[in-house]
Amino acid sequence: MTSEAPDVGLQIRPYELELTExxxxxxxxxxxxxxxxxxxxxxxxxxxxEAAPLPGWTESYDAxxxxxxxxxxxxxxxxxxxxxxxxxxxxxxxxxSLAIADRYATKAARPLYQYLGDGSRVARVPVNATVGARxxxxxxxxxxxxxxxxxxxxxxxxxSGALEDDLERVRRVRAAVDEDVELRVDANGGWTYDEAExxxxxxxxxxxxxxxxxxxxxxxxxxxxxxxxxxDVDIALDEGLLxxxxxxxxxxxxxxxxxxxxxxxxxxxxxRELVTWLTELDIDLLVTTTIDGVVARTAAVHLxxxxxxxxxxxxxxxxxxxxxxxxxxxxxEKGAAVVPQAKGLGIDDIWGEP
Length: 354
Ligand SMILES: O=C(O)CCC(=O)C1=CC=C[C@@H](O)[C@@H]1C(=O)O
Ligand SMILES: [Mg+2]
Known about the structure:
It holds the Pfam family MenC_N. Keywords: Lyase, Magnesium, Menaquinone biosynthesis, Metal-binding. This is o-succinylbenzoate synthase. Its cofactor is a divalent metal cation. By secondary structure, this protein is α/β, with parallel strands linked by helices. It has 2 domains: 9-109, Enolase-like, domain 1; 116-338, Enolase-like C-terminal domain (TIM Barrel, Alpha-Beta Barrel). It contains 12 helices and 13 strands. It has a 7-stranded parallel β-sheet. Strands 1-2-3 form a 3-stranded antiparallel β-sheet. It has a 3-stranded antiparallel β-sheet with strand order 4-13-12, covered by helices on one side. The longest helix has 18 residues, at 90-107. It binds the ligand O=C(O)CCC(=O)C1=CC=C[C@@H](O)[C@@H]1C(=O)O and magnesium ion. Ligand 164 binds at residues 25, 27, 128, 130, 155, 186, 188, 238, 288-291, 314, 317. Residues 186, 188, 212-213, 238, 259 line the site of magnesium ion.
C-alpha cells in the first residue's frame, strides 16, 4: 500500500506591532516589529508559525515576503519544496518550519518542546528581564521593577553611550537589587577591546555573570583574549554565532556561552542541531528572541525547554510590545517561564476564521 502525502495549504498574513517605547541597543533602536504569521494546514490539522525579519539580524521584510510567496507557489509539490524556497532567508524559514513543526506536534498531541527534545517533561525555564540602554534613573527603575515582579536575572544593554555611564548604570543596579540577582550586560558589539577590558574590572566587582557580545561580530580573536584575561565574567557570543557559525567559534575558543536566536538562525530545527553540538562541547547555551510576537516568543520558550541546563534566557520580551498577535500562553513566575503543556505551541485562535 502506498501512502499519499496530504494536500498542504500554506498562507501568510502580514502584521505590524509597535513597541511600548523605543528599545535602544548599540546596534540601533527598535521601535516597530513587522513580519508575517504563517499558517499550514493538512488533514484538518493547523500549524502556526511567525516570520519576524529584523534588519541587521535576518533578511529584510521584502526578502522575507518574497521567499514566503515563493514557498506558497510550490507548496503543491510538498513541504520539502516549500522549505527549499526559504532556505536562504532565516526569518522566513523560521516561520514556515515552525508552522510545520507546530502542526506535527499538534497532530501527535504533544507539546512542541517534547517533540524537539528528549520527550521528558519540563515545567519551567529560567528567564532574564531585558533592560534597554536608558538613563541611569530609568535603568535602576526598570531593574527594581523587574526584580519586584520576581525576575532573578537582569540583562542590561550597554555600548551605545559613554563607557563610564554604562559602568555607573551597572554599579547602581548592583546596589539596588538583591545580591543573588544575576546581572548580565549586552554590548551588541559596541565596545573596543580596550573598553571591554576596562569594563571587565567593574563588571567582575559588580558580580556581572555574562558579558554578551562586547566586540564586533568579526572579532573572534578579541573575544578569546577577553576570555583569557583574569576576570571571572563569562563571554557570550550572539551576533558572532550568526556571522561565523559554531565551528569557527569553537575553533577560536571565543565563547563561554552561546546565544541562540532561533528566528535568526533559520528555525527551531536548526537551533536544535546546534544545541546537540554545543552541549557535547560543554559550551553553555541560552535562548533569546528578536522581540517578536507571541508565536515566535512561545516557540523560543519551547526551544529553551528542550535545551539541557539552559541558562536564564531572554524570553520575557512580550512586555516590550504595545500589542500582540494573540493571547500569550506563557506565564512568568518567580523568574521562570511556565512552559505550555498543551499540544503543539499551545497557541489557539490566532488566525481567526479562515
Ligand atoms: O536577550 C534578551 O534579553 C532579549 C532580546 C534582546 O536582547 C535582543 C533582541 C533584539 C535585538 C538585539 O539587540 C537583542 C540582543 O542582542 O540580544
Ligand atoms: Mg545580544
